[in-house]
Records
---
Amino acid sequence: MNHHLYSLHLLTFALRTAGDAIESVALPWSVLQSTGSLLSIGGFALFTHLPWVILPPLLGRTLDKTRKRVRLAFSALLLQSALAVVIVPFSSNI
Protein backbone atom coordinates (compact mmCIF):
# COMPACT_ATOMS: atom_id res chain seq x y z
CA MET A 1 0.00 0.00 0.00
CA ASN A 2 2.80 2.45 0.83
CA HIS A 3 4.45 1.77 -2.51
CA HIS A 4 1.20 2.64 -4.30
CA LEU A 5 0.85 5.91 -2.36
CA TYR A 6 4.47 6.83 -3.05
CA SER A 7 4.01 6.18 -6.76
CA LEU A 8 0.88 8.32 -6.77
CA HIS A 9 2.71 11.09 -4.93
CA LEU A 10 5.62 10.90 -7.37
CA LEU A 11 3.26 11.08 -10.35
CA THR A 12 1.36 14.09 -9.02
CA PHE A 13 4.63 15.83 -8.15
CA ALA A 14 5.93 15.27 -11.70
CA LEU A 15 2.69 16.58 -13.22
CA ARG A 16 2.70 19.63 -10.96
CA THR A 17 6.33 20.39 -11.82
CA ALA A 18 5.63 20.07 -15.55
CA GLY A 19 2.57 22.31 -15.20
CA ASP A 20 4.55 24.94 -13.31
CA ALA A 21 7.24 24.91 -16.00
CA ILE A 22 4.66 25.32 -18.76
CA GLU A 23 2.95 28.13 -16.85
CA SER A 24 6.23 29.98 -16.27
CA VAL A 25 6.74 30.14 -20.05
CA ALA A 26 3.13 30.50 -21.23
CA LEU A 27 2.08 33.47 -19.08
CA PRO A 28 4.94 35.83 -20.03
CA TRP A 29 4.60 34.71 -23.64
CA SER A 30 0.90 35.56 -23.55
CA VAL A 31 1.67 38.99 -22.06
CA LEU A 32 4.27 39.60 -24.79
CA GLN A 33 1.85 38.64 -27.55
CA SER A 34 -0.97 40.76 -26.18
CA THR A 35 1.11 43.88 -25.43
CA GLY A 36 4.23 43.55 -27.57
CA SER A 37 6.26 45.15 -24.78
CA LEU A 38 9.19 43.67 -22.90
CA LEU A 39 8.49 46.17 -20.14
CA SER A 40 5.11 44.48 -19.65
CA ILE A 41 6.83 41.14 -19.11
CA GLY A 42 9.10 42.72 -16.51
CA GLY A 43 6.11 44.32 -14.80
CA PHE A 44 4.25 41.03 -14.88
CA ALA A 45 7.18 39.22 -13.30
CA LEU A 46 7.64 41.91 -10.67
CA PHE A 47 4.03 42.14 -9.62
CA THR A 48 3.36 38.40 -9.60
CA HIS A 49 6.42 37.66 -7.46
CA LEU A 50 6.30 40.69 -5.19
CA PRO A 51 3.68 39.30 -2.75
CA TRP A 52 5.73 36.10 -2.36
CA VAL A 53 8.87 38.12 -1.55
CA ILE A 54 7.46 40.74 0.82
CA LEU A 55 4.70 39.02 2.76
CA PRO A 56 6.28 35.75 4.02
CA PRO A 57 8.84 37.39 6.34
CA LEU A 58 6.22 39.74 7.79
CA LEU A 59 3.59 37.05 8.17
CA GLY A 60 6.14 34.53 9.46
CA ARG A 61 7.10 36.80 12.33
CA THR A 62 3.43 37.28 13.22
CA LEU A 63 2.80 33.55 12.90
CA ASP A 64 5.59 32.75 15.37
CA LYS A 65 4.06 35.06 17.99
CA THR A 66 0.48 33.79 17.88
CA ARG A 67 -1.25 30.76 19.37
CA LYS A 68 -3.68 30.09 16.50
CA ARG A 69 -0.94 29.26 14.01
CA VAL A 70 -2.91 27.04 11.65
CA ARG A 71 -5.70 29.57 11.24
CA LEU A 72 -3.24 32.42 10.72
CA ALA A 73 -1.13 30.43 8.26
CA PHE A 74 -4.22 29.63 6.22
CA SER A 75 -5.26 33.30 6.32
CA ALA A 76 -1.76 34.33 5.19
CA LEU A 77 -1.94 31.93 2.26
CA LEU A 78 -5.33 33.34 1.26
CA LEU A 79 -4.00 36.90 1.56
CA GLN A 80 -0.99 36.17 -0.64
CA SER A 81 -3.19 34.47 -3.22
CA ALA A 82 -5.67 37.35 -3.23
CA LEU A 83 -2.89 39.89 -3.71
CA ALA A 84 -1.42 37.90 -6.59
CA VAL A 85 -4.83 37.65 -8.27
CA VAL A 86 -5.48 41.37 -7.82
CA ILE A 87 -2.04 42.46 -9.05
CA VAL A 88 -1.82 40.28 -12.19
CA PRO A 89 -4.38 42.26 -14.29
CA PHE A 90 -2.55 45.52 -13.60
CA SER A 91 0.85 44.17 -14.64
CA SER A 92 -0.05 43.94 -18.35
CA ASN A 93 -1.01 47.64 -18.54
CA ILE A 94 2.51 48.99 -17.98
---
Amino acid sequence: MRPLLLASISCLVFCLQIQSSHADTFYKWVDDQGVTHYGTRPPEGSNAESVNTHAQKPGNQEKATKQLEETKAEQAYQTKEEKEEERFQKDLTAAKQERKKQCEEARQNKVQLTLKSRVKMKMEDGSVKMLSEEERQEQIKQADEAIKEFCL
Protein backbone atom coordinates (compact mmCIF):
# COMPACT_ATOMS: atom_id res chain seq x y z
CA MET A 1 0.00 0.00 0.00
CA ARG A 2 2.79 2.33 0.87
CA PRO A 3 4.53 1.98 -2.55
CA LEU A 4 1.26 2.85 -4.28
CA LEU A 5 0.89 6.01 -2.20
CA LEU A 6 4.49 6.97 -2.86
CA ALA A 7 4.02 6.43 -6.61
CA SER A 8 0.82 8.53 -6.62
CA ILE A 9 2.54 11.42 -4.82
CA SER A 10 5.50 11.24 -7.20
CA CYS A 11 3.17 11.33 -10.17
CA LEU A 12 1.31 14.33 -8.72
CA VAL A 13 4.54 16.25 -8.13
CA PHE A 14 5.71 15.47 -11.65
CA CYS A 15 2.41 16.72 -13.12
CA LEU A 16 2.61 19.93 -11.11
CA GLN A 17 6.13 20.58 -12.41
CA ILE A 18 4.99 20.08 -15.98
CA GLN A 19 2.01 22.37 -15.34
CA SER A 20 4.24 25.11 -13.93
CA SER A 21 6.64 24.91 -16.87
CA HIS A 22 3.72 25.44 -19.22
CA ALA A 23 2.56 28.40 -17.16
CA ASP A 24 5.81 30.32 -17.80
CA THR A 25 5.50 33.53 -19.75
CA PHE A 26 7.35 33.52 -23.03
CA TYR A 27 8.84 36.63 -24.58
CA LYS A 28 9.83 37.73 -28.05
CA TRP A 29 12.57 40.26 -28.75
CA VAL A 30 14.88 41.40 -31.55
CA ASP A 31 18.63 41.77 -30.91
CA ASP A 32 20.99 44.41 -32.33
CA GLN A 33 21.60 42.38 -35.51
CA GLY A 34 17.86 42.19 -36.23
CA VAL A 35 17.49 38.53 -35.24
CA THR A 36 14.23 37.58 -33.49
CA HIS A 37 14.55 35.49 -30.31
CA TYR A 38 12.04 33.72 -28.07
CA GLY A 39 12.53 32.71 -24.44
CA THR A 40 11.26 32.75 -20.86
CA ARG A 41 13.73 35.48 -19.83
CA PRO A 42 14.40 38.44 -22.08
CA PRO A 43 17.76 40.20 -21.81
CA GLU A 44 17.80 43.32 -19.67
CA GLY A 45 17.21 46.59 -21.47
CA SER A 46 15.48 45.01 -24.44
CA ASN A 47 11.98 45.78 -25.63
CA ALA A 48 10.52 42.30 -25.24
CA GLU A 49 6.87 41.59 -25.75
CA SER A 50 4.85 38.83 -24.16
CA VAL A 51 3.78 35.97 -26.45
CA ASN A 52 0.45 34.20 -26.02
CA THR A 53 1.17 30.46 -25.87
CA HIS A 54 -2.33 29.27 -25.06
CA ALA A 55 -4.23 27.12 -27.52
CA GLN A 56 -7.22 28.57 -29.32
CA LYS A 57 -10.47 28.53 -27.48
CA PRO A 58 -13.21 26.18 -28.65
CA GLY A 59 -15.33 29.21 -29.55
CA ASN A 60 -12.90 29.98 -32.39
CA GLN A 61 -13.66 26.58 -33.89
CA GLU A 62 -17.34 27.45 -34.05
CA LYS A 63 -16.49 30.78 -35.67
CA ALA A 64 -14.18 29.07 -38.17
CA THR A 65 -16.87 26.49 -38.97
CA LYS A 66 -19.40 29.26 -39.52
CA GLN A 67 -16.97 31.14 -41.78
CA LEU A 68 -16.31 27.94 -43.74
CA GLU A 69 -20.04 27.36 -44.19
CA GLU A 70 -20.51 30.97 -45.31
CA THR A 71 -17.64 30.61 -47.79
CA LYS A 72 -19.13 27.38 -49.16
CA ALA A 73 -22.53 29.04 -49.47
CA GLU A 74 -21.00 32.02 -51.27
CA GLN A 75 -19.12 29.72 -53.66
CA ALA A 76 -22.30 27.76 -54.33
CA TYR A 77 -24.13 31.04 -55.02
CA GLN A 78 -21.36 32.17 -57.39
CA THR A 79 -21.44 28.82 -59.17
CA LYS A 80 -25.22 29.09 -59.50
CA GLU A 81 -24.89 32.63 -60.89
CA GLU A 82 -22.23 31.49 -63.36
CA LYS A 83 -24.46 28.65 -64.55
CA GLU A 84 -27.41 31.03 -64.89
CA GLU A 85 -25.25 33.49 -66.84
CA GLU A 86 -24.06 30.66 -69.09
CA ARG A 87 -27.66 29.53 -69.66
CA PHE A 88 -28.71 33.13 -70.36
CA GLN A 89 -25.92 33.56 -72.92
CA LYS A 90 -26.90 30.27 -74.57
CA ASP A 91 -30.57 31.34 -74.75
CA LEU A 92 -29.55 34.77 -76.05
CA THR A 93 -27.47 33.19 -78.81
CA ALA A 94 -30.35 30.90 -79.76
CA ALA A 95 -32.75 33.86 -79.83
CA LYS A 96 -30.36 35.84 -82.05
CA GLN A 97 -30.08 32.90 -84.44
CA GLU A 98 -33.87 32.51 -84.56
CA ARG A 99 -34.27 36.23 -85.20
CA LYS A 100 -31.72 36.06 -88.02
CA LYS A 101 -33.59 33.11 -89.55
CA GLN A 102 -36.93 34.97 -89.38
CA CYS A 103 -35.29 38.03 -90.95
CA GLU A 104 -33.98 35.96 -93.85
CA GLU A 105 -37.42 34.39 -94.39
CA ALA A 106 -39.13 37.80 -94.32
CA ARG A 107 -36.71 39.18 -96.92
CA GLN A 108 -37.12 36.13 -99.15
CA ASN A 109 -40.91 36.45 -98.90
CA LYS A 110 -40.77 40.12 -99.90
CA VAL A 111 -38.51 39.35 -102.85
CA GLN A 112 -40.86 36.61 -104.07
CA LEU A 113 -43.94 38.79 -103.57
CA THR A 114 -42.33 41.76 -105.32
CA LEU A 115 -40.84 39.96 -108.31
CA LYS A 116 -43.87 37.88 -109.22
CA SER A 117 -47.18 39.40 -110.22
CA ARG A 118 -48.98 36.08 -109.80
CA VAL A 119 -48.31 34.49 -106.43
CA LYS A 120 -49.61 31.18 -105.16
CA MET A 121 -49.97 30.71 -101.43
CA LYS A 122 -50.33 27.45 -99.57
CA MET A 123 -53.22 27.62 -97.12
CA GLU A 124 -53.42 26.00 -93.66
CA ASP A 125 -55.66 23.21 -94.92
CA GLY A 126 -53.06 22.27 -97.57
CA SER A 127 -54.84 23.79 -100.53
CA VAL A 128 -53.13 26.31 -102.84
CA LYS A 129 -54.70 29.70 -103.55
CA MET A 130 -53.79 32.29 -106.15
CA LEU A 131 -53.49 35.70 -104.44
CA SER A 132 -55.30 38.71 -105.80
CA GLU A 133 -53.38 41.98 -106.24
CA GLU A 134 -54.84 43.36 -102.97
CA GLU A 135 -53.87 40.18 -101.09
CA ARG A 136 -50.38 40.30 -102.63
CA GLN A 137 -49.96 43.94 -101.53
CA GLU A 138 -51.16 42.97 -98.02
CA GLN A 139 -48.58 40.17 -97.93
CA ILE A 140 -45.85 42.62 -99.04
CA LYS A 141 -46.92 44.98 -96.24
CA GLN A 142 -46.69 42.09 -93.71
CA ALA A 143 -43.25 41.15 -95.06
CA ASP A 144 -42.11 44.78 -94.59
CA GLU A 145 -43.35 44.71 -90.99
CA ALA A 146 -41.54 41.41 -90.35
CA ILE A 147 -38.34 42.88 -91.82
CA LYS A 148 -38.63 45.90 -89.50
CA GLU A 149 -39.22 43.64 -86.51
CA PHE A 150 -36.57 40.97 -87.14
CA CYS A 151 -33.88 42.65 -89.25
CA LEU A 152 -33.29 46.00 -87.54
---
Amino acid sequence: MSTALEAYKTALRLRPGRAALYFRLATVYDEHYRDKTPAARYYRRFLRAHEGALPELRRYATSRLKALRPTLHMQQGPASSNE
Protein backbone atom coordinates (compact mmCIF):
# COMPACT_ATOMS: atom_id res chain seq x y z
CA MET A 1 0.00 0.00 0.00
CA SER A 2 2.91 2.37 0.51
CA THR A 3 3.37 2.47 -3.28
CA ALA A 4 -0.22 3.60 -3.75
CA LEU A 5 0.17 6.25 -1.06
CA GLU A 6 3.31 7.61 -2.68
CA ALA A 7 1.64 7.70 -6.09
CA TYR A 8 -1.38 9.59 -4.74
CA LYS A 9 0.84 12.00 -2.77
CA THR A 10 2.94 12.67 -5.88
CA ALA A 11 -0.21 13.31 -7.91
CA LEU A 12 -1.44 15.67 -5.19
CA ARG A 13 1.83 17.62 -5.28
CA LEU A 14 1.44 17.96 -9.04
CA ARG A 15 -2.27 18.84 -8.88
CA PRO A 16 -2.99 20.25 -5.41
CA GLY A 17 -6.57 20.52 -4.33
CA ARG A 18 -7.95 17.69 -6.48
CA ALA A 19 -10.84 16.32 -4.49
CA ALA A 20 -10.56 12.83 -5.98
CA LEU A 21 -6.99 12.48 -4.75
CA TYR A 22 -7.96 13.42 -1.21
CA PHE A 23 -10.72 10.82 -1.34
CA ARG A 24 -8.38 8.09 -2.62
CA LEU A 25 -5.78 8.85 0.04
CA ALA A 26 -8.47 8.78 2.71
CA THR A 27 -9.77 5.40 1.62
CA VAL A 28 -6.30 3.83 1.42
CA TYR A 29 -5.50 4.97 4.95
CA ASP A 30 -8.97 4.00 6.17
CA GLU A 31 -8.95 0.50 4.71
CA HIS A 32 -5.32 -0.53 5.18
CA TYR A 33 -3.85 1.27 8.19
CA ARG A 34 -4.58 0.97 11.87
CA ASP A 35 -4.09 4.71 12.58
CA LYS A 36 -7.23 6.40 11.24
CA THR A 37 -5.99 9.97 11.83
CA PRO A 38 -4.64 10.41 8.26
CA ALA A 39 -7.86 8.94 6.84
CA ALA A 40 -9.96 11.46 8.76
CA ARG A 41 -7.66 14.31 7.70
CA TYR A 42 -7.99 13.41 4.01
CA TYR A 43 -11.75 12.86 4.26
CA ARG A 44 -12.03 16.39 5.71
CA ARG A 45 -9.85 17.83 2.95
CA PHE A 46 -11.96 16.02 0.39
CA LEU A 47 -15.14 17.50 1.80
CA ARG A 48 -13.61 21.01 1.74
CA ALA A 49 -12.42 20.64 -1.87
CA HIS A 50 -15.64 21.18 -3.83
CA GLU A 51 -14.13 20.20 -7.20
CA GLY A 52 -17.17 18.45 -8.64
CA ALA A 53 -17.22 15.81 -5.95
CA LEU A 54 -19.94 13.25 -6.54
CA PRO A 55 -22.72 13.40 -3.95
CA GLU A 56 -22.26 9.68 -3.26
CA LEU A 57 -18.59 10.20 -2.40
CA ARG A 58 -19.44 13.18 -0.19
CA ARG A 59 -22.03 11.07 1.67
CA TYR A 60 -19.52 8.23 2.05
CA ALA A 61 -16.79 10.56 3.36
CA THR A 62 -19.21 12.17 5.80
CA SER A 63 -20.44 8.80 7.07
CA ARG A 64 -16.87 7.50 7.47
CA LEU A 65 -15.87 10.58 9.47
CA LYS A 66 -18.85 10.02 11.74
CA ALA A 67 -17.98 6.33 12.12
CA LEU A 68 -14.32 7.10 12.83
CA ARG A 69 -15.01 9.56 15.66
CA PRO A 70 -14.90 6.95 18.47
CA THR A 71 -11.73 5.38 17.03
CA LEU A 72 -10.04 8.76 16.65
CA HIS A 73 -11.04 9.67 20.17
CA MET A 74 -9.42 6.49 21.49
CA GLN A 75 -6.29 6.94 19.35
CA GLN A 76 -5.73 10.61 20.19
CA GLY A 77 -7.28 11.05 23.58
CA PRO A 78 -9.89 13.56 24.70
CA ALA A 79 -7.61 16.63 24.41
CA SER A 80 -7.48 16.39 20.63
CA SER A 81 -11.11 15.56 19.93
CA ASN A 82 -11.75 19.12 18.73
CA GLU A 83 -12.08 18.78 14.98
